[in-house]
Specification:
Layout: E1 2-5, H1 6-20, E2 24-28, H2 44-48, E3 53-55, H3 60-72, E4 76-80, H4 91-98, H5 101-104, E5 114-119, H6 134-138, E6 144-146, H7 151-163, E7 168-173, H8 176-179, E8 181-184, E9 197-200, E10 205-209, H9 212-227, E11 232-236, E12 239-241, H10 245-255, E13 258-265, H11 270-281, E14 291-295, H12 305-311, H13 315-327
Parallel strand pairs: 2-3, 2-4, 4-5, 5-7, 6-7, 10-11, 10-13, 13-14
Antiparallel strand pairs: 1-8, 6-12, 9-11
Length: 328
């Protein structure tokens, strides 16, 4: 077992899948010799050749549209969108075609397509390199949307995504690429899509989160345990569609106090759906209102460091909200 960064674990998972199945190929901007803008695919074109690691035009609609066609003919494409902020030109292909082909063909056709996209802020990327877009796709039936946050999970989930017979949106928080490291098994394994994971056991309050915010929540939980004696359970959703309803309700029933944290804008974010599920199915177990700590409802991430800091949830903000919830 080796200690890998998140980006190394992701590359290892893709590499294993390409070695195991020659139908797996990568299509995206600069994914070849350059290895992608963040170097996720570094070295893969040298290993598998230019027909399996293909540099695309600067045209996201073509990237996804061509991959849908290839998937319909039995291939296992991985489309890379350089930044999630630029996925919108492919929106029609994803929502109107990829998500619906299985349904409208009564199960005769499938689209085994993975669309990878770095997302999120905290890197001074400003308006066009910091967006969180997961809730928009999570609203669409026919799509799976995953947001793994640890090296172990990212390697196992990319394999599950490639195996899946239907389209999977695979969002990677770019700040975690090299910041987060962890133990990763050398051999093949899978982490199932649609299963949350309790990353920290606790008895007083629950934090439900995903992506970079998982690590901020864990930091806040450890700090509160030391200073306030508050034991926080941290539930990592890992998949935002489908949600692991059973795990969400189990943790809510266990602690009776729930804080939902995500970087995406507050209104109509994933937190709203999670809160609705708890209110509908576990209301009688609650000892406090369900609370949310999210990005504010402003159109985009500011560039100025002070404003970016104001936008982003942080371990300190999470700890303060947890104190408020615990004291309710």
């Amino acid at each position: 077992m080796a200690e890998l960064s998140l980006i190394e674990a992701l590359r290892a998972g893709i590499d294993e899948a390409m070695a195991a199945d020659e139908r797996v190929f990568i299509f995206g901007e600069d994914v070849g010799k350059r290895g992608g803008v963040f170097r996720v695919t570094e070295g893969l074109q040298d290993k598998y050749g230019p027909w399996r690691v293909i540099d695309s035009p600067l045209a996201e609609g073509i990237i996804v549209g061509a991959c849908i066609g290839a998937a319909l003919y039995g291939m296992r494409p991985i489309a890379e969108i350089q930044f999630a902020d630029f996925i919108w030109p492919a929106m029609n292909q994803i929502v109107s075609e990829a998500a619906r082909i299985c349904y409208r063909s009564n199960g005769d056709w499938n689209v085994p397509l993975v669309i990878r996209a770095p997302y999120g802020g905290g890197i001074h990327g400003a308006l066009y390199h910091s967006q969180s877009v997961e809730s928009i796709f999570a609203h669409v039936p026919g799509l799976k949307v995953v947001v793994p946050a640890t090296p172990y999970d990212v390697k196992g989930m990319i394999r599950s995504a490639i195996d899946d017979p239907n389209p999977v949106l695979f969002f990677e928080h770019k700040k975690t690429y090299r910041l987060i490291k962890g133990q990763v098994p050398d051999g093949e394994y899978r982490v199932p899509i649609g299963k949350a994971d309790v990353k920290r056991q606790g008895s007083d309050v629950t934090v439900i989160t995903y992506g970079l915010m998982l690590h901020y929540a864990l930091e806040a939980a450890e700090a509160l345990a030391g200073t306030d004696g508050i034991e926080t359970e941290v539930l990592d959703l890992r998949s935002v569609r489908p949600l692991d309803v059973e795990a969400i309700l189990a943790s809510a029933r266990k602690t009776g106090k729930v804080l939902i944290v995500h970087e995406d804008n507050l209104t109509a974010g994933i937190g709203a759906e999670v809160a609705a599920l708890i209110a509908e199915h576990a209301f009688e177990y609650l000892d406090a209102p369900i609370m949310r700590l999210c990005g504010p409802d402003v159109p985009a991430m500011p560039f100025a460091a002070t404003l970016e800091e104001a936008f982003m949830p942080s371990p300190e903000k999470i700890a303060a909200k947890l104190r408020e919830l615990a004291a309710y």
